[in-house]
Amino acid sequence: MADQTHSAEQGSAMTTPKEHAPAQAAQGGRTPSDALSGDASPHIATQATAAKRVSSSRRLAYIDWMRGLACLLMFQDHCYDSWLTPAARDGDVFRWSRLLGTMPAPLFLFLCGISFALVTERLWERGAARDAIARQTIWRGFLIYLAGVLFRLQEYALGFPHAPWTDLLRVDVLNILGISMMLMGGLCWMATSQRVDVTRHVTIAGGVVVAALTAMVTPVLYTTHRLYFLPWPIESYIDGIHTFQAPQPWLFPIFPWIAFAFAGLAIGLFLFTDFAKRSESRTFLLLGGAGVLCGVLSFAVDLAPVHWYAVYDYWHTSPQFLLMRCGILLVIMFAAYAWCEWGWAQKGFSPVIQLGKTSLLVYWVHIEFVYGRLSILPKLRCSVPEATAGLVIICVAMLLLSIWRTEWKRKAALKKSAAAQAATSPAQRETTAVARELA
Fold this sequence. Notes:
By secondary structure, the protein is mainly alpha-helical.
Protein backbone atom coordinates (compact mmCIF):
# COMPACT_ATOMS: atom_id res chain seq x y z
CA MET A 1 0.00 0.00 0.00
CA ALA A 2 1.87 2.95 -1.24
CA ASP A 3 -0.16 6.06 -0.56
CA GLN A 4 0.85 6.31 3.11
CA THR A 5 4.53 5.49 2.50
CA HIS A 6 5.08 6.76 -1.03
CA SER A 7 4.98 10.42 -0.07
CA ALA A 8 7.41 9.75 2.74
CA GLU A 9 9.78 8.06 0.31
CA GLN A 10 9.58 10.95 -2.10
CA GLY A 11 10.20 13.45 0.64
CA SER A 12 12.59 11.51 2.81
CA ALA A 13 14.24 8.84 0.72
CA MET A 14 14.90 10.81 -2.44
CA THR A 15 16.11 14.10 -0.96
CA THR A 16 18.07 15.21 2.04
CA PRO A 17 18.55 18.64 3.62
CA LYS A 18 21.89 18.88 1.81
CA GLU A 19 20.11 18.37 -1.49
CA HIS A 20 17.51 21.00 -0.69
CA ALA A 21 20.08 23.65 0.19
CA PRO A 22 21.45 24.36 -3.31
CA ALA A 23 17.97 24.50 -4.77
CA GLN A 24 16.92 26.97 -2.10
CA ALA A 25 19.97 29.09 -2.82
CA ALA A 26 19.15 29.28 -6.50
CA GLN A 27 15.55 30.16 -5.70
CA GLY A 28 16.32 33.07 -3.43
CA GLY A 29 18.62 31.75 -0.71
CA ARG A 30 21.53 33.69 -2.28
CA THR A 31 21.90 37.35 -1.43
CA PRO A 32 22.24 40.03 -4.16
CA SER A 33 25.94 40.35 -3.31
CA ASP A 34 26.39 36.60 -3.90
CA ALA A 35 24.71 36.89 -7.28
CA LEU A 36 26.70 39.96 -8.32
CA SER A 37 29.98 38.37 -7.30
CA GLY A 38 29.74 36.08 -10.31
CA ASP A 39 30.01 32.88 -8.21
CA ALA A 40 28.25 30.23 -10.30
CA SER A 41 28.74 27.38 -7.84
CA PRO A 42 25.07 27.37 -6.63
CA HIS A 43 23.96 26.87 -10.25
CA ILE A 44 26.36 23.95 -10.62
CA ALA A 45 25.14 22.53 -7.33
CA THR A 46 21.55 22.86 -8.51
CA GLN A 47 22.33 20.88 -11.66
CA ALA A 48 24.07 18.22 -9.59
CA THR A 49 21.11 18.08 -7.24
CA ALA A 50 18.69 17.65 -10.14
CA ALA A 51 20.82 14.84 -11.56
CA LYS A 52 20.99 13.19 -8.15
CA ARG A 53 17.22 13.34 -7.75
CA VAL A 54 16.68 11.80 -11.19
CA SER A 55 19.14 9.05 -10.30
CA SER A 56 17.36 8.41 -6.99
CA SER A 57 14.01 8.35 -8.74
CA ARG A 58 15.29 5.77 -11.23
CA ARG A 59 16.73 3.65 -8.46
CA LEU A 60 13.47 3.68 -6.48
CA ALA A 61 11.27 2.97 -9.50
CA TYR A 62 11.66 -0.77 -8.92
CA ILE A 63 9.77 -0.40 -5.62
CA ASP A 64 6.74 1.08 -7.36
CA TRP A 65 7.06 -1.52 -10.11
CA MET A 66 6.96 -4.32 -7.54
CA ARG A 67 3.93 -2.74 -5.86
CA GLY A 68 2.23 -2.49 -9.23
CA LEU A 69 2.97 -6.16 -9.90
CA ALA A 70 1.46 -7.02 -6.51
CA CYS A 71 -1.67 -5.08 -7.49
CA LEU A 72 -2.03 -6.98 -10.77
CA LEU A 73 -1.55 -10.34 -9.06
CA MET A 74 -4.10 -9.31 -6.44
CA PHE A 75 -6.64 -8.23 -9.09
CA GLN A 76 -6.49 -11.53 -10.97
CA ASP A 77 -6.72 -13.57 -7.76
CA HIS A 78 -9.73 -11.67 -6.44
CA CYS A 79 -11.57 -11.53 -9.77
CA TYR A 80 -11.33 -15.25 -10.53
CA ASP A 81 -12.10 -16.13 -6.92
CA SER A 82 -15.23 -13.97 -6.84
CA TRP A 83 -16.70 -14.64 -10.27
CA LEU A 84 -15.82 -18.15 -11.51
CA THR A 85 -18.42 -20.87 -11.33
CA PRO A 86 -17.74 -23.94 -9.14
CA ALA A 87 -17.10 -25.97 -12.30
CA ALA A 88 -14.57 -23.45 -13.62
CA ARG A 89 -12.70 -23.65 -10.33
CA ASP A 90 -11.65 -27.18 -11.17
CA GLY A 91 -9.61 -25.97 -14.16
CA ASP A 92 -5.96 -25.01 -14.52
CA VAL A 93 -6.71 -21.29 -14.80
CA PHE A 94 -8.11 -21.11 -11.29
CA ARG A 95 -5.35 -23.27 -9.84
CA TRP A 96 -2.65 -21.07 -11.34
CA SER A 97 -4.54 -17.97 -10.26
CA ARG A 98 -4.59 -19.16 -6.67
CA LEU A 99 -0.90 -19.99 -6.80
CA LEU A 100 -0.02 -16.52 -8.10
CA GLY A 101 -2.42 -15.08 -5.54
CA THR A 102 -0.14 -16.21 -2.71
CA MET A 103 2.39 -13.49 -3.61
CA PRO A 104 0.66 -10.07 -3.28
CA ALA A 105 0.55 -10.02 0.53
CA PRO A 106 4.23 -11.04 0.93
CA LEU A 107 5.13 -8.44 -1.70
CA PHE A 108 3.25 -5.65 0.06
CA LEU A 109 4.76 -6.53 3.44
CA PHE A 110 8.27 -6.96 2.05
CA LEU A 111 8.05 -3.59 0.28
CA CYS A 112 6.64 -2.04 3.45
CA GLY A 113 9.86 -3.09 5.18
CA ILE A 114 12.04 -1.68 2.37
CA SER A 115 10.14 1.62 2.36
CA PHE A 116 10.42 1.79 6.13
CA ALA A 117 14.18 1.29 5.81
CA LEU A 118 14.47 4.09 3.23
CA VAL A 119 12.61 6.59 5.40
CA THR A 120 14.36 5.59 8.63
CA GLU A 121 17.81 5.70 7.02
CA ARG A 122 17.26 9.30 5.90
CA LEU A 123 16.07 10.26 9.37
CA TRP A 124 19.21 8.71 10.86
CA GLU A 125 21.41 10.58 8.40
CA ARG A 126 19.72 13.86 9.29
CA GLY A 127 20.53 13.27 12.92
CA ALA A 128 16.92 13.04 14.05
CA ALA A 129 16.46 12.11 17.69
CA ARG A 130 15.77 8.45 18.47
CA ASP A 131 12.47 9.20 20.21
CA ALA A 132 11.34 11.47 17.36
CA ILE A 133 12.02 8.76 14.77
CA ALA A 134 10.13 6.22 16.86
CA ARG A 135 7.15 8.52 17.30
CA GLN A 136 6.99 9.31 13.59
CA THR A 137 7.31 5.74 12.34
CA ILE A 138 5.10 4.13 14.99
CA TRP A 139 2.43 6.79 14.47
CA ARG A 140 2.45 6.15 10.72
CA GLY A 141 2.03 2.44 11.40
CA PHE A 142 -0.87 3.17 13.75
CA LEU A 143 -2.55 5.22 11.01
CA ILE A 144 -2.23 2.29 8.60
CA TYR A 145 -3.74 0.00 11.23
CA LEU A 146 -6.63 2.47 11.67
CA ALA A 147 -7.09 2.46 7.90
CA GLY A 148 -7.55 -1.30 8.13
CA VAL A 149 -10.19 -0.85 10.84
CA LEU A 150 -12.00 1.76 8.74
CA PHE A 151 -11.85 -0.56 5.74
CA ARG A 152 -13.57 -3.30 7.72
CA LEU A 153 -16.21 -0.82 8.92
CA GLN A 154 -16.86 0.23 5.34
CA GLU A 155 -17.18 -3.35 4.13
CA TYR A 156 -19.51 -4.19 7.00
CA ALA A 157 -21.70 -1.15 6.31
CA LEU A 158 -21.89 -1.93 2.59
CA GLY A 159 -22.68 -5.59 3.32
CA PHE A 160 -25.24 -4.91 6.03
CA PRO A 161 -27.43 -6.75 7.03
CA HIS A 162 -25.94 -9.86 5.40
CA ALA A 163 -22.36 -9.38 6.64
CA PRO A 164 -21.74 -10.95 10.08
CA TRP A 165 -20.56 -8.57 12.80
CA THR A 166 -17.50 -10.76 13.33
CA ASP A 167 -16.13 -9.46 10.02
CA LEU A 168 -15.38 -6.22 11.87
CA LEU A 169 -12.68 -8.08 13.83
CA ARG A 170 -11.11 -9.89 10.91
CA VAL A 171 -7.32 -9.48 10.64
CA ASP A 172 -6.71 -8.11 7.17
CA VAL A 173 -3.57 -7.11 5.28
CA LEU A 174 -3.84 -3.43 6.27
CA ASN A 175 -3.97 -4.42 9.94
CA ILE A 176 -0.79 -6.45 9.71
CA LEU A 177 0.93 -3.75 7.66
CA GLY A 178 0.26 -1.25 10.45
CA ILE A 179 1.33 -3.67 13.19
CA SER A 180 4.52 -4.49 11.28
CA MET A 181 5.41 -0.82 10.96
CA MET A 182 4.86 -0.22 14.68
CA LEU A 183 7.02 -3.23 15.58
CA MET A 184 9.75 -2.14 13.17
CA GLY A 185 9.65 1.31 14.74
CA GLY A 186 10.24 -0.31 18.12
CA LEU A 187 13.18 -2.34 16.77
CA CYS A 188 14.79 0.75 15.23
CA TRP A 189 14.35 2.62 18.53
CA MET A 190 16.11 -0.14 20.44
CA ALA A 191 18.92 -0.40 17.86
CA THR A 192 19.72 3.33 17.64
CA SER A 193 23.23 4.32 18.72
CA GLN A 194 25.53 7.31 18.24
CA ARG A 195 26.84 6.05 14.89
CA VAL A 196 24.56 5.52 11.90
CA ASP A 197 26.57 2.60 10.54
CA VAL A 198 26.39 0.75 13.86
CA THR A 199 22.66 1.45 14.12
CA ARG A 200 22.17 0.17 10.59
CA HIS A 201 24.04 -3.09 11.15
CA VAL A 202 22.32 -3.78 14.47
CA THR A 203 18.91 -3.18 12.89
CA ILE A 204 19.76 -5.46 9.94
CA ALA A 205 20.72 -8.21 12.37
CA GLY A 206 17.58 -7.56 14.42
CA GLY A 207 15.37 -7.77 11.32
CA VAL A 208 16.89 -11.09 10.28
CA VAL A 209 16.54 -12.52 13.79
CA VAL A 210 12.90 -11.42 14.15
CA ALA A 211 12.01 -12.84 10.72
CA ALA A 212 13.74 -16.16 11.50
CA LEU A 213 12.21 -16.53 14.96
CA THR A 214 8.76 -15.67 13.61
CA ALA A 215 9.08 -18.38 10.98
CA MET A 216 10.31 -20.94 13.49
CA VAL A 217 7.59 -20.47 16.12
CA THR A 218 4.68 -20.27 13.66
CA PRO A 219 4.16 -24.06 13.28
CA VAL A 220 4.06 -24.46 17.06
CA LEU A 221 1.59 -21.62 17.62
CA TYR A 222 -0.66 -23.02 14.89
CA THR A 223 -0.72 -26.63 16.15
CA THR A 224 0.70 -28.08 19.35
CA HIS A 225 0.87 -24.87 21.41
CA ARG A 226 -2.10 -22.86 20.25
CA LEU A 227 -3.19 -20.14 22.64
CA TYR A 228 -6.67 -21.52 23.29
CA PHE A 229 -7.08 -19.49 26.48
CA LEU A 230 -7.21 -16.22 24.55
CA PRO A 231 -10.53 -14.79 23.27
CA TRP A 232 -10.80 -15.49 19.56
CA PRO A 233 -10.49 -11.82 18.49
CA ILE A 234 -7.08 -11.69 20.20
CA GLU A 235 -5.96 -15.19 19.24
CA SER A 236 -6.82 -14.32 15.65
CA TYR A 237 -3.96 -11.82 15.66
CA ILE A 238 -1.62 -14.66 16.61
CA ASP A 239 -2.72 -17.51 14.35
CA GLY A 240 -5.66 -16.29 12.22
CA ILE A 241 -8.26 -18.46 13.92
CA HIS A 242 -11.09 -15.90 13.58
CA THR A 243 -14.38 -17.67 14.40
CA PHE A 244 -13.30 -21.05 13.03
CA GLN A 245 -11.89 -24.16 14.64
CA ALA A 246 -8.50 -23.91 12.94
CA PRO A 247 -6.20 -21.11 11.65
CA GLN A 248 -7.27 -19.79 8.26
CA PRO A 249 -4.68 -19.36 5.47
CA TRP A 250 -6.57 -16.40 3.94
CA LEU A 251 -6.14 -14.22 7.04
CA PHE A 252 -3.06 -12.21 8.00
CA PRO A 253 -2.05 -12.76 11.64
CA ILE A 254 1.24 -11.64 13.15
CA PHE A 255 2.70 -15.13 12.72
CA PRO A 256 4.13 -15.60 10.14
CA TRP A 257 3.29 -12.44 8.19
CA ILE A 258 5.47 -9.89 10.00
CA ALA A 259 8.49 -11.96 8.95
CA PHE A 260 8.18 -10.57 5.40
CA ALA A 261 8.20 -6.97 6.66
CA PHE A 262 11.26 -7.52 8.84
CA ALA A 263 13.02 -9.28 5.97
CA GLY A 264 12.27 -6.23 3.83
CA LEU A 265 13.61 -3.96 6.56
CA ALA A 266 16.90 -5.89 6.66
CA ILE A 267 17.24 -5.88 2.86
CA GLY A 268 16.34 -2.18 2.60
CA LEU A 269 18.99 -1.19 5.15
CA PHE A 270 21.52 -3.53 3.53
CA LEU A 271 21.22 -1.43 0.36
CA PHE A 272 22.67 1.51 2.35
CA THR A 273 25.79 -0.35 3.49
CA ASP A 274 29.19 0.56 2.01
CA PHE A 275 29.34 -2.86 0.34
CA ALA A 276 26.04 -2.30 -1.49
CA LYS A 277 26.87 1.30 -2.47
CA ARG A 278 30.15 0.30 -4.12
CA SER A 279 28.27 -1.55 -6.86
CA GLU A 280 24.51 -1.34 -6.88
CA SER A 281 24.09 -3.64 -9.88
CA ARG A 282 26.32 -6.29 -8.33
CA THR A 283 24.36 -6.03 -5.08
CA PHE A 284 21.02 -6.69 -6.76
CA LEU A 285 22.53 -9.56 -8.73
CA LEU A 286 23.78 -11.09 -5.49
CA LEU A 287 20.34 -10.65 -3.91
CA GLY A 288 18.76 -12.42 -6.87
CA GLY A 289 21.26 -15.26 -6.50
CA ALA A 290 20.52 -15.43 -2.78
CA GLY A 291 16.83 -15.77 -3.67
CA VAL A 292 17.56 -18.79 -5.87
CA LEU A 293 19.67 -20.28 -3.08
CA CYS A 294 16.78 -19.80 -0.63
CA GLY A 295 14.51 -21.76 -2.94
CA VAL A 296 16.98 -24.62 -3.31
CA LEU A 297 17.57 -24.72 0.45
CA SER A 298 13.82 -24.73 1.10
CA PHE A 299 13.27 -27.80 -1.07
CA ALA A 300 16.36 -29.54 0.30
CA VAL A 301 15.25 -29.18 3.91
CA ASP A 302 11.70 -30.22 3.00
CA LEU A 303 13.03 -33.45 1.47
CA ALA A 304 15.07 -34.25 4.56
CA PRO A 305 13.92 -37.45 6.33
CA VAL A 306 13.70 -35.71 9.73
CA HIS A 307 11.45 -32.75 10.55
CA TRP A 308 11.55 -30.59 13.66
CA TYR A 309 7.83 -30.25 14.31
CA ALA A 310 5.21 -32.67 15.54
CA VAL A 311 2.79 -31.35 12.91
CA TYR A 312 4.49 -30.47 9.62
CA ASP A 313 2.68 -28.56 6.84
CA TYR A 314 5.08 -27.27 4.19
CA TRP A 315 2.55 -25.21 2.23
CA HIS A 316 1.04 -23.30 5.15
CA THR A 317 3.13 -23.03 8.31
CA SER A 318 6.62 -24.40 7.71
CA PRO A 319 9.70 -22.12 7.90
CA GLN A 320 10.82 -23.71 4.63
CA PHE A 321 7.80 -22.36 2.76
CA LEU A 322 8.40 -18.89 4.18
CA LEU A 323 12.04 -19.19 3.11
CA MET A 324 10.88 -20.17 -0.38
CA ARG A 325 8.64 -17.12 -0.64
CA CYS A 326 11.40 -14.84 0.63
CA GLY A 327 13.60 -16.30 -2.10
CA ILE A 328 10.93 -15.55 -4.70
CA LEU A 329 10.70 -11.97 -3.38
CA LEU A 330 14.44 -11.50 -3.82
CA VAL A 331 14.32 -12.86 -7.38
CA ILE A 332 11.39 -10.55 -8.19
CA MET A 333 13.31 -7.65 -6.65
CA PHE A 334 16.31 -8.30 -8.89
CA ALA A 335 14.10 -8.71 -11.96
CA ALA A 336 12.24 -5.47 -11.16
CA TYR A 337 15.49 -3.58 -10.65
CA ALA A 338 16.93 -4.92 -13.91
CA TRP A 339 13.73 -4.12 -15.83
CA CYS A 340 13.62 -0.57 -14.45
CA GLU A 341 17.36 0.07 -14.81
CA TRP A 342 18.11 -1.56 -18.16
CA GLY A 343 14.74 -2.52 -19.64
CA TRP A 344 11.74 -0.59 -20.91
CA ALA A 345 10.00 0.02 -17.59
CA GLN A 346 10.92 3.71 -17.64
CA LYS A 347 10.97 4.28 -21.39
CA GLY A 348 7.86 6.43 -21.21
CA PHE A 349 4.68 5.69 -19.29
CA SER A 350 4.59 2.49 -17.22
CA PRO A 351 1.13 1.26 -16.16
CA VAL A 352 2.70 -1.07 -13.59
CA ILE A 353 4.70 1.72 -11.92
CA GLN A 354 1.64 3.95 -12.01
CA LEU A 355 -0.47 1.39 -10.17
CA GLY A 356 2.31 0.96 -7.63
CA LYS A 357 2.25 4.66 -6.77
CA THR A 358 -1.36 4.42 -5.57
CA SER A 359 -1.55 0.80 -4.42
CA LEU A 360 -3.49 1.58 -1.24
CA LEU A 361 -6.18 3.44 -3.19
CA VAL A 362 -6.67 0.77 -5.86
CA TYR A 363 -6.66 -1.97 -3.23
CA TRP A 364 -9.36 -0.17 -1.27
CA VAL A 365 -11.58 0.60 -4.27
CA HIS A 366 -11.35 -2.58 -6.30
CA ILE A 367 -12.59 -4.79 -3.43
CA GLU A 368 -16.09 -3.36 -3.62
CA PHE A 369 -16.28 -3.81 -7.41
CA VAL A 370 -15.12 -7.43 -7.17
CA TYR A 371 -16.46 -8.81 -3.88
CA GLY A 372 -18.99 -6.21 -2.75
CA ARG A 373 -22.49 -5.18 -3.72
CA LEU A 374 -21.12 -3.16 -6.63
CA SER A 375 -19.50 -6.21 -8.22
CA ILE A 376 -19.40 -5.67 -11.98
CA LEU A 377 -20.14 -9.36 -12.64
CA PRO A 378 -22.39 -11.91 -10.89
CA LYS A 379 -20.49 -13.86 -8.26
CA LEU A 380 -19.79 -17.55 -8.82
CA ARG A 381 -21.61 -17.51 -12.18
CA CYS A 382 -18.97 -16.62 -14.77
CA SER A 383 -16.91 -18.69 -17.17
CA VAL A 384 -13.17 -18.15 -17.50
CA PRO A 385 -13.52 -15.85 -20.59
CA GLU A 386 -16.21 -13.78 -18.84
CA ALA A 387 -14.17 -13.46 -15.65
CA THR A 388 -11.08 -12.58 -17.71
CA ALA A 389 -13.00 -9.80 -19.45
CA GLY A 390 -14.08 -8.49 -16.06
CA LEU A 391 -10.47 -8.63 -14.89
CA VAL A 392 -9.37 -6.49 -17.83
CA ILE A 393 -12.09 -3.95 -17.00
CA ILE A 394 -10.98 -3.82 -13.37
CA CYS A 395 -7.32 -3.34 -14.35
CA VAL A 396 -8.13 -0.52 -16.77
CA ALA A 397 -10.51 1.17 -14.33
CA MET A 398 -7.98 1.02 -11.48
CA LEU A 399 -5.25 2.39 -13.77
CA LEU A 400 -7.46 5.32 -14.75
CA LEU A 401 -8.26 5.93 -11.09
CA SER A 402 -4.55 5.86 -10.27
CA ILE A 403 -3.75 8.35 -13.02
CA TRP A 404 -6.52 10.66 -11.82
CA ARG A 405 -5.22 10.47 -8.25
CA THR A 406 -1.65 11.25 -9.31
CA GLU A 407 -2.76 14.15 -11.50
CA TRP A 408 -4.94 15.55 -8.72
CA LYS A 409 -2.03 15.45 -6.29
CA ARG A 410 0.23 17.14 -8.85
CA LYS A 411 -2.22 19.98 -9.43
CA ALA A 412 -2.76 20.39 -5.68
CA ALA A 413 1.00 20.66 -5.18
CA LEU A 414 1.25 23.27 -7.94
CA LYS A 415 -1.52 25.33 -6.39
CA LYS A 416 0.16 25.16 -3.00
CA SER A 417 3.48 26.22 -4.52
CA ALA A 418 1.83 29.11 -6.38
CA ALA A 419 0.08 30.24 -3.21
CA ALA A 420 3.37 30.17 -1.28
CA GLN A 421 5.09 32.18 -4.01
CA ALA A 422 2.27 34.70 -4.07
CA ALA A 423 2.66 35.16 -0.32
CA THR A 424 6.25 36.39 -0.69
CA SER A 425 6.92 40.13 -0.92
CA PRO A 426 7.65 41.83 -4.29
CA ALA A 427 11.19 42.60 -3.10
CA GLN A 428 11.84 38.92 -2.36
CA ARG A 429 10.48 37.89 -5.76
CA GLU A 430 12.66 40.52 -7.50
CA THR A 431 15.75 39.37 -5.62
CA THR A 432 15.00 35.78 -6.54
CA ALA A 433 14.56 36.66 -10.21
CA VAL A 434 17.85 38.59 -10.30
CA ALA A 435 19.68 35.74 -8.58
CA ARG A 436 18.32 33.22 -11.10
CA GLU A 437 19.37 35.34 -14.06
CA LEU A 438 22.88 35.99 -12.80
CA ALA A 439 23.62 32.59 -11.28
